[in-house]
Structures are given as C-alpha cells and as structure tokens.
Amino acid sequence: MQNRFFSGETKMGMWKLGFLGLLCAHFLFAIGAVELGRSQPTERISGSAGDVLEDDPVGRLKVFVYELPSKYNKKILQKDPRCLNHMFAAEIFMHRFLLSSPVRTLNPEEADWFYTPVYTTCDLTPNGLPLPFKSPRMMRSAIQLISSNWPYWNRTEGADHFFVVPHDFGACFHYQEEKAIERGILQLLQRATLVQTFGQRNHVCLKEGSITIPPYAPPQKMQSHLIPDKTPRSIFVYFRGLFYDVGNDPEGGYYARGARAAVWENFKDNPLFDISTEHPTTYYEDMQRAVFCLCPLGWAPWSPRLVEAVIFGCIPVIIADDIVLPFADAIPWEDIGVFVDEEDVPKLDTILTSIPPEVILRKQRLLANPSMKQAMLFPQPAQPGDAFHQVLNGLARKLPHGSAVFLKPGEKILNWTAGPVGDLKPW
Amino acid sequence: MTSLPKSTDDNFDNPSLTKGTSPSQQVDGGLFKRVKVQKMKLSALQQSYLTRRANSFRGSAQLDSSGDSAVKSPAAIFWLAIHGVCCLISLVLGFRFSRLVFFFLFSANLYTAPFRAGGGADVASPLDVSVPANRTAASRVVVGRHGIRIRPWPHPDPVEVMKAHRIMERVQREQRALFGVKNPRTVIAVTPTYVRTFQMLHLTGVMHALMLVPYDLVWIVVEAGGVTNETASIIAKSGLRTIHVGFSQRMPNSWEARHKLESRMRLHALRIVSKEKLDGVVVFADDSNMHSMEFFDEAQNVKWVGAVSVGILLHSEESSGMEEDGVSVPVQGPACNATDKLVGWHTFNSLRYTGRSAVYVDDRAPVLPRKLEWSGFVLNSRLVWKDVDGKPEWVRDLDALDGVDEDIESPLSLFKTSSVVEPLGNCGRQVLLWWLRVEARTDSKFPSRWIIDPPLDITIPSKRTPWPDAPPELPSNEKVLIGTQDQTNKPSTRTKTPRSRRNRSKRKHDTKVIGVQVSTNSEQN
C-alpha cells in the first residue's frame, strides 16, 4: 500500500533500512531468547579460579592409570560390594571413570599425572563402617609396587601422582581426630597430590595443593525424590541427624565439638527449626521444602548434607570452623552458603533472620544453576561438568609441573621408614 | 555419681587440658578405650547397637595394632601397669566418677599451679612442649571436649520468628513468580447469596478461601432481596475489593425456584462485568461450596471457557439397602478420552433420587444439583464484554438472553457449541471444588449479625453441674457476649442486672451472663 507513495529509489532505501532493522532486532531477540529459554534465571558461578565449572579437561591433561594387581582394587570390591554405596565410594567411581575417559593415556611417557587405583577405604565392618587400620599398609604396598615396576615414581617421588583418599581425615588414615593428627599424612604421600573429602584450614591432614571433593551421594536416588519446583518452601531451617553420639560421647561436648548439641539445646522448641534425630522417608522431599539446611560438623567436618542441600536448592548453613569445602577454588562458597562459627551457634536464629531477602534469593539463584548441582555429583556414566571433571580440572590447573617436581638424579626426599612401626609391615 | 554439667562457660575448653599432655591423655585413652568414631547418618538407636558391636571388633583390632608396635621398654610396661590399675578403678567406681578422680589426681600431680580460673594462661605454657610436633601453627580449632554453649534464654524470640516468616513469604513469592502462573489475571468471583441462618457459615467459608487467593481479586456479591447490612457487614471483613449489588426478587423457598433465581443473579453479575469492563477470569463461587486453592491456580490457565470437576456432596440417607457397593461420590465435570480431548460430560444422575430429594429448602432429604453446576465453569471475562474484538464467534451476546425467562441451567447456554470448553485440572481428573447445599429451617431465627442485643429474656435454671470446684479465678478483662446457664440455688430467675463480677469466691458455680457487657472469669468455661 505504501508503494504508491514511494518512488523506486526510496523503496530501495526503505528495504536497506528494514534489513538493518531486522538484523538488529534479530540480535536483540536472540539475546533475549537465551534468557527466556531457561525456566529459572540463574547466575553464573565463578570462584577464585574464575568461571571454571564448565571447563572441559579433555585435551588439557593426560592421566596414566597404573595396572595394579586386582588384590588392590577388584578383589576388595568383590569381597564387599557395599563399598559402592557408602559415602567413600568416590575412589571406586573415580577409577572406573578414568579407565574409560578420553584423558586417559596408555603411554606413560606423555602423561602429566599418574593415578594409582587402590581402594583403601573398602575395609568395612559388618555394620558398614570402614576401618582404616590396614589402609596405610595397603597404600605403602601399592607405592612400593609402582616404584619398583615403573620408573615414574622414583623420578619425582610421587609429585606428579595423585591418590584418592576419601576417608574421614584423608591420608591420615584414622577416624579419630587426635590419632589422625598424631599420625599425620602418610610419609610416602608427602609429595603427591591428594584428592580427599576432608578439608580444614591449618590442619595436619590437609596438605597444600590437595583437591577437596564432595562425598559420594547416590545421584539416582536423589533424582527420584524431586518434587515440583513450585512447591512453596515453608520450612525455615531443616536438619535430621544426631545431636549427641550416645554410643561414643554420651555427655556431649566431644562429638562435633559440642556444636550439634548446642543447636539442639538452643533451638529444640523453636518452631522455625525443624530438627530431630528421626529418619523420615521424606527426607529428600523435606529438604526441598526448606529454605535453610544445617550442615554442622560431626566427627569430621565434612558431610553428605552439603551435597544434598545443593542438589535440592536448600541454602547450606555450614557450622564447622575453618572448613575447606569441595572445589573451593572453583565454587564461591561464601556467596552460596552461610557460614556460622561454632561459637555463634546460640545466635543462629538471629544470624539467619538478619540475612536480607535479596541475599537469600541470590543464593537460591546460584544454587539453582545446573552446573553447580552437576559439580557435586558422581553420576554413572559420567556427564560433563560433574565432580569427576572438576577433579580433572583441578589437576589441570596445577599444570605445568614446576621445576621442584622432578628430582635431580640421586636425590631422595622421602623417608621410607618413617611412620608408626605397624605401618611398615607388608600387606 | 556426679555427672559433668553442660556448661555455658567453657570450663573444659581449656586447651591445655583438652589437647592433653601425654600422661593424662593416655590415661584418658585408657578410659576412653571404648570411644570410637562413628559415621554420621545413623540413628541413635542403631548407633548404640552398632557401637556395641563395633566396639568389640575395633577394640580387638586396636589392641592388635598397639600390641604389635609395643616394644617392651620399661616405660611401656609402666604405662601398661597404670593402664591396668586405672581399668580396675574405673570398673569399681564407674565411668564418670573415675574420670573425675583421675582428672583431679593427675592435675594435682602434674601442674604446679592447680586448675584455677584465671590460672589458665599460666597452666598453658609448660604444656606447650608436649603438643604433638606436627601440628601446624595458628589453628584456632581445638580437638577435644568443648562446652555446649547454651544462651541464657534458649527459647524462640517472637521478633525473630516474624522476620523468618517475612523471609519465607518473600521466598514463596519469588517461587510463585518463577514457577507459578506467569502474568496472573484478576480473579472475578461471583457469589449469589441471601440472608438466612446459614449465610454466615457459608459466606465466611467462601470469604476465607477468597482471602487466601494469591492473585488480585474482585468479589461480586449479588444478594436476593436487596442489599442488607447483614451481608455487607460480613463481606466488609474480608478486606477484598467487593461489588455488592442487590437483586430485587426475594429468594423463594423451593430448590427448583432457587436454582433458577441463582442463575439469573449470576447473569446479572455478568452484566456488571460487561458494563464495568472488568478484565480477568470469572469463577462462580457459590456461597455454600468449598474451594481448594488449586482451583484458583487452574483457573488462571483458561483461555476462553474452562470446566473443572466438581465433587457433589449429598448427605446420605438413613435408608439402608443402597444398591451400589459403597457410595461413591458423584463428580460433575468434563470427560476426556485418552488423548486429553473433551469428549463429553460427567453429569449428575438424579434418577436414583427421584421422589426422595428435597423440594423445599428446609427439607431433610438430599438436595440435588442440576445436571451441570455453574460453579464448575470458569470464563474469560472478555467473553461477556460488548464490542470487543477477538471474541470467538461461538459466544452468544449476553443481551440476547436479557429478559428471556428461560431457564439458563448452565453457562453452556451462553455458547453456541459446547465443544469449545477446555477441560482443566488435569483434564478433569482433579476435583478442585465441592458442592454442598445445607440450609436451616426457614423459620429459624438467628440474632441479627449474630450479636445478642437486647439481652436475652429468659435464663433457664439447671441443676448443679458435674464439674469440680473452680480453680482460683484469674482476672479477665474480656467482655464475653454469650449466654450460659445460671447455677444458683434460686428456683427461678429473672433478668439480672449485669454487674461486673471479678473475683468471685470459690463457690461451685458459674457466673451467669445474661446480658451484654459482663467481664467474666476464665473458670467459667
């Protein structure tokens, strides 16, 4: 209709203008479409190492997996398949992941990192609790094997090797903290990189350069308990677990350094705090209906509750002094969780209610980020961005190896006879 | 046997003692032989059971390892001997008491300055030597026994509780904005009503449901017999935006006629919607129905006309011998096939009740609904607007029905075809509201606005009540407007002047309340 009013030249001009306008509109809408495509606005997660959760480790490092006799791994698992389900199962799944991962190389000469598949936490009591008494000997025996059969240990004394030690206090190999501190990290692992769940600043059992991982939590089980997102969050603070460990510490004060007992004593009659020792079947569903989930320390500072809270979008309230949380350089935990000192536990309600609502909503947005949830899980088969990949990313960030890694010929740093006498017995 | 108290001040948080010198630690170790680390996520019961089992297992394991490593030096033998003695003593004295004993014994032996408040700093220094060498510096976290910190008044603080509720409200609002309905439309609720005994009951129910609706709301109340103060006072309490109109005809006494009049009243309301050009979703909230909150959420999903399933509640009859196995609640609503397309309607089958249903409003027989109740339908308000583009062509003009006295049984008569109705609530599988008709006798009298004024005339004496002696009265400033029995010995009573009776003596009676403003005591009830 407008053609009547315009001559030919202005018609061309009109077309050009229209085309430009379309182009601009396309870009505008494209950007908008990306935002609208997601169902919930989430925020990107960038920790102190940068925006690294979605990095792909393939191509950035090469890992060589030692072939150990099956008495170090397969036979142990065959003897007790329960090891696949407890919270230390990360060591087994890491092995399986590495065997079929593209970062694996069969040529040790080109490998940046060396992995030793030894399942040190798979020695379970009849009740399912792991005993660490044989672990040092097992580890030592494995290291003796790899140092005698391959030259790669000796040339660096393990500085380019990594081990997965998901036990309570990592490579200190004891469940009781005082004993663990006494033992310290196994001498032979002093130069290796440790991948462990335990993390506490200025603690003997956390070595510089260790990678902290989340404890294993079964992904399928958690996915099967998801409830619709629009279920309103009507519980303010949620916690299920022990406050007093009556078996080992009947009076309290020892277990959890008294923090859990303090939570109970101060807030047991507070309607905002849904805390108890029960084991409801709706545990996962309840977490999704809560705004805050308490993650206090127990006998060790870490707990699978953190993983569960992140998966279910409940803001974790971490009560463990000086704790180092998983992938601390990739995930800005300060922005995501709430940290409460153990001495401030009696003021917990004041602390939580004084957080401004915008901050709370921001934390929930960060938690809703799928890459955050993915980074806490060990799914089978592995998926991009999951905890396995974050471990590899962490290892890749430590590359290239510094000059101190490779020993000069004849130099020896490790003392093979150090440590308690019982450790020296062969396994 | 003394037990160590949970302390607010950290009596036992003295680093020197808890980190422990080797002697006391070892002694403690001996006594703590049974202390083992357990894993989290076990229940207490399970745990204690497990501990007992694990203890035996681990105890032997530990002794093995320690036994293996022990070189038989004099020191080791000495400590073994001490260990044995301590075990014997602890057996005799019991766990807790023996710990105390050793605590004081060794503290007296080893420390020149015994344990004193304020002496903690002095005590700490000679013991630094025995700190394990490989503990890194500057760790403020101390292993060992800590006090359990309890604040002076460990109870909820109302201010904090309110703040927490505000936070939860804000979070839920955000959730609704993210996952709930985007761009929620105003809900226009249409309620026909009239003044009768049960009006307060029914209308309050609807009012509370509407007050909980999280969307904007307009409540159109059409009252048969004209606008009255009764109804106005009830709906004023809602705080909602209300449009209260009167309808000139009075509500008749038979259900048949009543249904007809209600339909006309609803059409009258729709005319108001059309005239005022109210934009939103029209729901028909009859005053004796019960609505679920999901009903209002589902109503937001309607495009033009929607239908939901309505549960019909009929009060059951006394007659036995119902032929069906178990009485299933009839449900009216859309019927869908497997592909979630509307194929028909579940209506109410009144054949079973022929001859046994209520005719008059106060009959004791079950009240039957029509084939399809108005309340099961949800309309987009633009359907009734005049002169607006975009209206679908299958809707009839509201004015065309004006003046025609036909029985508009259900909103389907507003449309030329009933296939355009959208089934809501998971295609009719969810019952989102319930229909119930219950009314009192037509001649029942109730105090206007449920306020007793003037005072009741007659009080009925009763015998001594069976409840025991009244507890001491608490002064109460409440003005209670109820009538109770008088229990005095007087055979007959007349109107008593209202007196404020505060502290009555402990006679076994109740205060009588005949009239209005009497402050009574709480013991009365």
UniProtKB/TrEMBL annotation, chain A:
One of its GO terms (cellular component) is Golgi membrane. It is found in: Golgi apparatus membrane. It is a single-pass type II membrane protein. The keyword Hydrolase does not apply. Pfam families: Exostosin_GT47. Keywords: Glycosyltransferase, Golgi apparatus, Signal-anchor, Transferase, Transmembrane. GO terms for molecular function: glycosyltransferase activity. This is Exostosin GT47 domain-containing protein. The keyword Metal-binding does not apply. It comes from Flemingia macrophylla. Residues 60-355 form the Exostosin GT47 domain. It comes from the Eukaryota. Belongs to the glycosyltransferase 47 family.
UniProtKB/TrEMBL annotation, chain B:
It comes from Flemingia macrophylla. This is Glycosyltransferases. The keyword Transmembrane helix applies. It is an enzyme of class 2 (transferase). GO terms for cellular component: Golgi membrane. It is found in: Golgi apparatus membrane. InterPro entries: Glyco_trans_43, Nucleotide-diphossugar_trans. It comes from the Eukaryota. Involved in the synthesis of glucuronoxylan hemicellulose in secondary cell walls. The chain crosses the membrane at residues 76-95. Residues 13-27 have a biased composition (Polar residues). Belongs to the glycosyltransferase 43 family. Its EC number is 2.4.-.-. Keywords: Cell wall biogenesis/degradation, Glycoprotein, Glycosyltransferase, Golgi apparatus, Membrane, Signal-anchor, Transferase, Transmembrane, Transmembrane helix. One of its GO terms (molecular function) is xylosyltransferase activity. It is a single-pass type II membrane protein. Residues 496-510 have a biased composition (Basic residues).
